Structure formats: C-alpha cells, structure tokens
C-alpha cells in the first residue's frame, strides 16, 4: 500500500503487535516483519522500529538484524532489546542488571528541549521489562532520559535520526507512550498521519478492481464481522462477480442461519445459503477428540466450498476474511517451530484439488480496525458489534462427541445467555460470550423429583484481540437470573457454572 509506511522489525517480543497497534492509532500505517526477513523494497518505509526480545544481546542466542541499509539512513527507534543491540554492538556495553527490572518506573531525568521528549516531563511513568541493562552508551550516544534504577533509559546517536529506549512505549502503563511514538514518527521522522478507515476503503477497492478485473470470486460468509466487511469491500470493487456462500454447518447459534440470511438481504450482496448440517453432523459422529473434530469440520467446509464453486462457472478466486493477528501468529520471529494449540478451520491453505487463488482484503487489519472500516462503509452497527464466533461453532463448545440433541440443548442455553446479555445492556461491554455443554451429568432435585442431567458452563471474556483474555465480572444478579432461566427453560440441564479462568493459562474456547 502506498502509504507513509513504518517498518517494525520483530525480535520476538510479546509486545510487538502492541507497537503496531499504537502506531496505527496515530493513523500511521505500519507492517511487522521478522528481524531476519527485512523487506527488499525499503524505499517505501519512512521509519523503522526495532522491537524488544526474550533473547539477550550477550548470549549465544543474540539475534543479528542486517541494519546496513537502515541505520543512519532512515529514522530508527530501538525499543528495549533493540536499544541494547544498538549499544552493545556500536561501542557501548550491556551487562546483566543487578536486579531484574519489571514494571513501573518514573523518569527522573529528561534532557531539555529534545523533540523526542516533546510534552513529556520528569516524573512521567514508564514500563520496564528487562534483565540486561545498558552500562555505557555507544559511540556518539547522547543521554536523553534516566530513571532511578536505569541511568541509560533513553539515548540518541548524534548525527543520525537514531533513538533508543530501554522502556516500552507501546504498553498502556507507559503513560506518555503514544506521545513518544508521535514525537518520533510525526515530528522527527515526518511521517504523515494519513491512514484512516476511509482511505483504506478507497485504496483497497481500487487495488481489488485492478487485481480481480472481471474475474469471479467466491467468499465464505459466516455472519461474523471479518467476512462481512471483506464481502462489502469486494462488493464495492467487483459487484455481481462476488458470490457469497453462507454454510449452515448445523453448529450455528439458534436461528442464526435464517436470521443472518435475512440480515444480508438489505446489503445488496449476492448470498447463497447452503444447508450442509447433515454432512457436518455425519462427519462428526462418534468423534470426541477436539483436534479430530476440528479437522473433520475443516474437511467438510472445503468439500462444501468445492461443490459450490463448481456450481458457478469460471470462478478464479476464493476470498477470505483473514485478519492481521491470524497472519502474525503463524510467523514466528525466531523461525523456530511453535506448537499447535488448536487447528483453526480456516488456516492452512487449500488442498491442491482446489485450483483457486486466494484474496484476503483484510489481512493487514486488527479486529477493531475491521470494525472501523465497516463503520466507514455504513454497515449495520449490530453486525459490526457482533461477538466473534468460531467457524467450528458449537462443536467446540460441546465437549466430547456431538449429537443433534446436544446441539439443540446448547443452542437453547446460548440463546438465553446472549439474550440476557443484550437485555441487561452488557453485550457490548463483553468481547465474546458463549455457553459450553460439559460431558458430565449431575444430580439435582426439581419439583421433589431427582434429576440426573447436564451441566453447562457460561463464559464471558474481555480482550482486545483474543490473544489474551480475562473473564468478565458479570453482576451476581445477572448470573442468578440467567442461571434460573436456563434451568427452568432448557430441558436436560440442571446445573450452571461460570468460568473464571483467564487466557493464558486457559483458552477462550474449551476445545
Ligand atoms: N458458516 C460459515 N459459512 C461460510 N464461511 C464460513 C462460515 N464460518 C466461517 N467461515 C469462513 O471462515 C472464516 C474465518 O471465520 P472467523 O470466525 O475467524 O471469522 P468471521 O466469522 O468472519 O468473523 P468473526 O471473527 O467476527 O466471527 C470466515 O471469514 C469465513 O470466510
Ligand atoms: O474461526 C475460527 N476458527 C476456529 O477454529 C477457532 N478456534 C477458536 N476461535 C476463536 O479464536 C479466539 C481465540 O480462541 P481460543 O482462545 O480458544 O484459542 C476466540 O474468539 C475463538 O472463538 C476460532 N475461530
Ligand atoms: N523486553 C526486552 O526486550 C528484554 C531484552 C532482554 N532480553 C533483557 O532481558 O534485557
Ligand atoms: Mg466467525
């Protein structure tokens, strides 16, 4: 994209995505690349940021970026590991600090009249997370700020637009972090703040027109935010050549298939609803292992898509609502293999027999940006505010094997829970919510009779991107009413529990 573009080089810090978010919040476009996969077309980047890292510049696991084409040639901001790297390999010294420094600190010295610290003063709170410390500055280093514990908390290199900070401007607890990034990017590097949802729509539509021409495209539409926004963008670009397919996998929420189809009617999209519930339920029969269930569902999704694509003559492309976190998660900074926690049904590419090319118009956006892009196209607020819902649907919320009866029970429970969240005006303050059907029966007493029925768990989390999450402190009264209503209304359930686990160590979905 021909924007004022910022390059973030990732050394594996858990905060790299946050740097990108903070930069985007300044309406500046940026991209993350692994430190050892620096893009060749460097001319499009107006500034470069080096992230932190779990590695140490002193150990054998030091990560060496190739900075020849960057250092001294482009404005450069080095954070934590990045700062240590600049110090250690340019004539300074990095050593283990006497005590590890995690958490809050305050700037005790800030060099006056420095553009880098414009509007930031002594006392400003910063967030530290390091165990090495910069003992001496590199050649031509000029001290810009200190804390009580860390003398060399910020420095610049005389004669270059190179700045380095030991603390993390990207985390919320660094109070003036955004100001600092603005000082560097806008005031020093002169990057323009021209990246807005509206400009994104205009440019994407133009790019899609160019790329797709008169080709036909199929898109899996799920009723969720990502695929709906992707559909609107594509529709603007290629109109009737976009064929949307919404699959009823029999694992959707109660009435979701018909409601979502209805909702799409007003949007001018060309949507086909395909009821494949029997195929999915057949494929799932007898499976109770979470990964086996996920793989079976992924397989049927592909079969259904393939069948549908064959119905339309001359389809060339498959469009997907993939978003940025999906991409970043699959590239590891250090190139090492990361373990598979869950096989997402939509990740992993297409089998060879499907000869379609992939188009992913949202692959550079975070979820909240997708919502803003949707809003700038005047899409329905309710649709944009929908909680994420996993493609494998209720199958990963019914622990163990799946039967039509279990799906029915869970649909009813979920409908009461989500309905009540809406009634109590809690829906929008929760990032995602759902109910889980547990594979246990427990004893109860209803109308003087013994029952031996199912137990359900309710889960509601707050999060920004689903990578980490915490359970929501829902009002007791809400939980009480909801639990009552579920047990009274849903035959087969006699116990309700509330999940109070954060992610990590738990995940949002139970399977
Ligand atoms: N029932 C479905 N029918 C057709 N395609 C689907 C269905 N469920 C999921 N998909 C496809 O899988 C992709 C990934 O699903 P995912 O849930 O991550 O995104 P989403 O549904 O678009 O948005 P959200 O995260 O808000 O639920 C979707 O973008 C869509 O292309
Ligand atoms: O489209 C999807 N296909 C999947 O296979 C899948 N698995 C989990 N999720 C959603 O991802 C987010 C994180 O979920 P976990 O904490 O359970 O990994 C949560 O928002 C989950 O709902 C999925 N979405
Ligand atoms: N957050 C970081 O970048 C830490 C850098 C280095 N691993 C240290 O512990 O000092
Ligand atoms: Mg979804």
From TrEMBL:
Domain of life: Bacteria
Broadest EC class assigned to this enzyme: ligase
Annotated binding of ATP, by residue: 222-228
Key word Endoplasmic reticulum present: no
Family matches, as Pfam families: GATase, GMP_synt_C, NAD_synthase
Reaction(s) the record says it catalyses: XMP + L-glutamine + ATP + H2O = GMP + L-glutamate + AMP + diphosphate + 2 H(+)
InterPro entries: Class_I_gatase-like, GATASE, GMP_synth_C, GMP_synth_GATase, GMP_synthase, GMPS_ATP_PPase_dom, NAD/GMP_synthase, Rossmann-like_a/b/a_fold
Annotated protein name in UniProt: GMP synthase [glutamine-hydrolyzing]
Name of the gene this protein is made from: guaA
């Amino acid at each position: 994209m021909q924007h004022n573009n910022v390059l973030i080089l990732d050394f594996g810090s858990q905060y790299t995505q946050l740097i990108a978010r903070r930069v985007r919040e300044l309406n500046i476009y940026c991209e993350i690349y692994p430190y050892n996969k620096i893009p060749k077309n460097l001319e499009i980047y107006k500034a470069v940021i080096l992230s932190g890292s779990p590695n140490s510049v002193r150990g054998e696991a030091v990560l060496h970026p190739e900075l020849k084409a960057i250092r001294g040639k482009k404005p450069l901001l080095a954070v934590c590991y990045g700062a240590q790297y600049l110090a250690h390999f340019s004539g300074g010294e990095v050593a283990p600090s006497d005590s590890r420094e995690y958490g809050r600190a305050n700037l005790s010295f800030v060099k006056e009249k420095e553009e880098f610290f414009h509007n930031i003063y002594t006392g400003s709170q910063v967030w530290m997370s390091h165990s090495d410390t910069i003992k001496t500055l590199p050649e031509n280093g000029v001290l810009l700020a200190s804390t009580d514990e860390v003398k060399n908390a910020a420095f610049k290199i005389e004669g270059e637009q190179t700045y380095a900070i030991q603390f993390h401007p990207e985390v919320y607890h660094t109070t003036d972090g955004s100001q600092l990034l603005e000082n560097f990017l806008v005031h020093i590097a002169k990057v323009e703040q021209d990246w807005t949802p509206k400009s994104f729509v205009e440019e994407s539509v133009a790019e899609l027109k160019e790329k797709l021409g008169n080709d036909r495209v199929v898109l899996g539409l799920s009723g969720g935010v990502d695929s709906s926004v992707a559909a609107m963008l594509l529709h603007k670009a290629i109109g009737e050549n976009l064929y949307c397919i919404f699959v009823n996998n029999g694992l959707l929420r109660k009435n979701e298939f018909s409601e979502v189809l209805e909702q799409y009617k007003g949007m001018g999209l060309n949507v086909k609803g395909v009821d494949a519930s029997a195929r999915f339920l057949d494929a799932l029969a007898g499976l109770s292992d979470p990964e086996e269930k996920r793989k079976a569902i992924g397989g049927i999704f592909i079969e259904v898509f393939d069948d549908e694509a064959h119905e339309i003559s001359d389809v060339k492309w498959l469009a997907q609502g993939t978003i940025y976190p999906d991409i970043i998660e699959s590239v590891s900074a250090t190139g090492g293999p990361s373990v598979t926690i869950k096989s997402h049904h939509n990740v992993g590419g297409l089998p060879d027999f499907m000869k379609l090319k992939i188009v992913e118009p949202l692959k550079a956006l975070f979820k909240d940006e997708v919502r803003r892009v949707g809003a700038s196209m005047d899409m329905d607020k309710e649709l944009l505010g929908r909680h994420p819902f996993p493609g494998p649907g209720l199958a990963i919320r019914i622990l163990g094997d799946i039967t039509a009866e279990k799906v029915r029970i869970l649909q009813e429970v979920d409908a009461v829970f989500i309905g009540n969240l809406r009634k109590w005006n809690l829906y929008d303050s929760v990032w995602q919510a759902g109910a889980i059907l547990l594979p246990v029966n427990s004893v109860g007493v209803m109308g003087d009779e013994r029952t031996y029925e199912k137990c359900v768990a309710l889960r509601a989390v707050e999060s920004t991107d689903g990578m980490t999450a915490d359970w929501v402190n829902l009002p007791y009264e809400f939980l009480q009413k909801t639990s009552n209503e579920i047990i009274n209304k849903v035959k087969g359930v006699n116990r309700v529990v509330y999940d109070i686990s954060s992610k990590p160590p738990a995940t949002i979905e139970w399977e």
